[in-house]
């Protein structure tokens, strides 16, 4: 896609084509699981995929760079402006004893509906030649109160896959609903390409903050679904530490409230 933008009476042309070329031969891969996680509620999916990249020692095989799709903010550290991030979306590959695993993540969700469609479509086009057994997008769904034993909901592109998720402890999303952003669009384009896909959504109380429980629970559920044990020790320890800190603060607050006013 080629955009022409008029800015301060200056014509600026920008080549905005979105295309991923994966630096790996699909013929050399066996049954493949594609796992996608992008920034969203609780940073759940992003944290989960970043953890898998780390523990699986995944290798970067493609990226998409653009200075124009980032959030309209700059970041600073101790008063110094950091460089603008241009590497926005990335594919990784990891080989396990059971599956080849492709991981897809990004620094941001594209800022417009159009670009969410462009990037989602391009991501699915890039994996069409691979033997994708399942695509999973990892995300979150909001709850009104804090709890440690969060549940995982799910939607799927077929009844057979949904039934399989249910057998493995996933709660089907009730009634009619929507999944916004790329976590939903990837499923839509996957279905058009006859790729079986599902979205797993862990409950989260922290809508805008970073949730430390949901990423652990969602990967624990995914491990059960694909019958492959990920190393989740770091996430488990972090979730338990967060829970202890949270409950301790709540307890102290309640104790302080119970003292009342003493003159």
Task: Please give the structural blueprint.
Blueprint: E1 2-7, E2 10-15, E3 32-37, H1 44-55, E4 59-65, E5 76-77, E6 80-81, E7 87-95, E8 100-106, H2 113-127, E9 132-142, E10 152-156, H3 159-167, E11 171-172, H4 182-192, E12 197-204, H5 214-226, H6 233-259
Parallel strand pairs: 3-8, 3-9, 9-12, 10-11
Antiparallel strand pairs: 1-2, 4-7, 5-6, 7-8, 10-12
Helix pairs in contact: 1-5, 2-4
Description:
- This protein is an alpha/beta fold.
- The protein has a single domain (2-259), classed as Rossmann fold.
- The protein is built from six helices and twelve strands.
- The protein has helices at 44-55, 113-127, 159-167, 182-192, 214-226, 233-259, and strands spanning 2-7, 10-15, 32-37, 59-65, 76-77, 80-81, 87-95, 100-106, 132-142, 152-156, 171-172, 197-204.
- The strands form three sheets. The chain has an eight-stranded mixed sheet, with helices on both faces. It has a two-stranded antiparallel ribbon with strand order 1-2.
- Helix 1 crosses helix 5 (214-226) and helix 2 packs across helix 4 (182-192).
- It starts with a strand and ends with a helix.
- Residues 1-14 have low confidence and may be disordered.
